[in-house]
From TrEMBL:
It comes from Pedobacter cryoconitis. Pfam families: LytTR, Response_reg. Residues 4-115 form the Response regulatory domain. This is LytTR family two component transcriptional regulator. InterPro entries: CheY-like_superfamily, LytR-like, LytTR_DNA-bd_dom, Sig_transdc_resp-reg_receiver. The keyword Transmembrane does not apply. Keywords: Phosphoprotein. The modification 4-aspartylphosphate is found at residue 55. Residues 143-210 form the HTH LytTR-type domain. The keyword Isomerase does not apply. One of its GO terms (molecular function) is DNA binding.
Length: 245
């Protein structure tokens, strides 16, 4: 049985890319697409596809509100050009969150996740060939031809400095001569939070928060930038223990 898919995005080139990716997978079936979110919602509720690829920033009806108005058991994969919405997306029970431009590899990783939510497809042999979420990154370092493997779980924070970034680990740092915007899509959205124009922090490494200061487990203190404050505290708020005082 195929996974039926629907696309809602106000950018036609994104629809075109997703249509191409879907057509290349034998067990995916595109049942429709729409650049108008209101018309798309009507179609999704009528067709009840297994999966909808859903943009967030759209006129008339944004993706978050769209998600709450779906009346079927359709699973949602959000597609956005902004990683700041990722934590809101997962609080809406999204299966995955894809950053634009969507690579084929990242698309297939999302499909892998979707299959685990659709029981009758869990036995498909094709799943074995879908790449799983990687837990590391390689960077060029030192001697020409040398690549250093860095596990995401070992990273405390990533610091941006002009057109280079520094991966800060427990006892060592590694410099990569690339802008931060090239690194962000490769970091797991569920673990890494941008808290400042210069800092992306591994949430697992946070010890505590004091006002606008984020203190890591290795005693590093990072400033929380005003631009990222709301999205940061919105994410943190999902895990705050509610008390009576």
């Amino acid at each position: 049985m195929n996974i039926t898919c629907y696309i809602v995005d106000d950018e036609y080139h994104v629809i075109s890319t997703l249509r191409e990716y879907i057509s290349e997978v034998p067990y995916l079936e595109l049942v429709g697409f729409n650049s108008n979110p209101e018309k798309g919602l009507v179609e999704v509720n009528r067709l009840a596809p297994d999966l909808v690829f859903l943009d967030i920033n759209m006129p008339m009806l944004d993706g978050m509100d769209f998600c709450q108005l779906i009346t079927t058991s359709t699973k949602v994969v959000f597609v956005s050009g902004y990683r700041d919405y990722a934590f809101d997306a997962f609080s809406h029970n999204a299966v995955d969150y894809l950053l634009k431009p969507v690579s084929h590899k990242r698309f297939m990783q999302a499909i892998h996740k979707v299959i685990s939510f659709v029981p009758m497809l869990s036995g498909k042999p094709s799943v074995q060939h879908i790449p799983s979420e990687v837990s590391y990154i390689y960077i060029k370092h030192g001697v020409k031809g040398r690549l250093i493997k860095i596990e995401f779980d070992d990273i405390y924070y990533v610091e941006s400095n002009d057109n280079q970034v520094v991966f800060n680990l427990e006892k060592e740092n590694y410099i990569a001569y690339v802008p931060l915007k090239n690194v962000l899509p490769q970091l797991p959205e569920t673990s890494f939070l941008r808290i400042h124009k210069s800092f992306v922090v591994n949430h697992k490494k946070i010890s505590h928060i004091e006002g606008n200061m984020v203190i890591l487990k290795n005693k590093t203190i990072l400033q929380l930038g005003n631009t990222y404050k709301d999205s940061f505290f919105k994410y943190v708020g999902l895990s705050v223990l509610k008390t009576n005082k």
